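help with this record:
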Amino acid sequence: MSKTELELKPVDFITIGTIGPKGQRIFHLQAGRERQLVTFVIEKEQAWALAEAIAELVDKIDQQEAIQTNVELASLDMELREPIQPFFRVAQMGLAWDEELHMVILVATEMVVPLNSEDERDDDLDLELELDNAGEVRMWATLKQMRALSLHATDTVEQGRPSPRLNGRITYYWM
């Protein structure tokens, strides 16, 4: 497997959305630049953590730069674009701030599953090999785009079932 690297600098849009009914939703992170569209499968918890991390980063930058990054979600198109064909499942994400360009960089790293997981192996060595072969996509976005992503991701996660007890897993009640 060869390592895929892609850079969207800057993105025209970036969003999070879901496909499927509550309890069976599949979360997607999606970004586009000109005619290039990339979609990733992420976990609900990743969407939530990303929303919180972005909000914290943008708040910190606003404070340092003495600016206020506000957005009105209602005026933005935060829907997933077609075709929704996942590029890869995300293992981890990271955020960075480019002071010179005044842009936030979101890095998505591919989840790589070992081909032969039944064999006994050196876990440290395999982990290094997996990370070396993991694809990576860097998405450069404005503070407003990232604030909108954070707000929309939070809203999307909260649109799920009202109680975590209804998450499709077995719930035990003690008397």
Helices lie at 44-65, 123-133, 143-158. The two ends are 53 Å apart (CA to CA).
